[in-house]
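Input sequence (200 aa), recorded before submission:
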Amino acid sequence: MLDARLRPLIDPPLNRAGRALARVGVSANALTFTGLAIGLGGAVAIAVGDLWLGLALIVINRLADGLDGAVARARAPTPLGGYFDIVADFAFYVSVPVGFGVMDQSNALPALVLVASFVLTGVSFLAFAVVAAERGDETQAHGKKSFFYSTGLAEGTETIAIFIAMCIFPTWFGIIAYVYAGLCVATVFQRSAMAIAKFR
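Predicted structure, token format:
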């Protein structure tokens, strides 16, 4: 919901940094995998109860995720890079609630529900992208991407805001997880309605 609105603000500094990194030989895929390792490290930190370290690594992961796209744009995006990027994103997204579930067994059920909602959201996102690609549809609402990015109520910005809230208010994890899972499910219905209107 907020991703497209934030792009005009965050893209210019990211693109400048991306061009600088590309000039010194840093590849987008290297940033993708480095960011994934950092993000998974954040989930491990949460699992062992170090929430502030987990929060810091989550923020660094998101910075790396923004920079890999900027480097790709500076060098020319590739389909393989787009594939790695989305796989890394979803691996990171599911790892954080798993970390909370490991940290405190009372978090296990809401963590499971949230992971399931992420799976549904991811399936709807990728299915929409596949059909849009077959039709030759394009959009740059989220910047230049290697495949079609459909909008939704629950996107990257909202997910990171939720992760930050979970780290700051861990005793509220269950409520936050259930509420955001509901928003993810609502996103699936929203995207399905968009598919009906666009692909019928």
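Checked by second reader. The mean pLDDT is 87.
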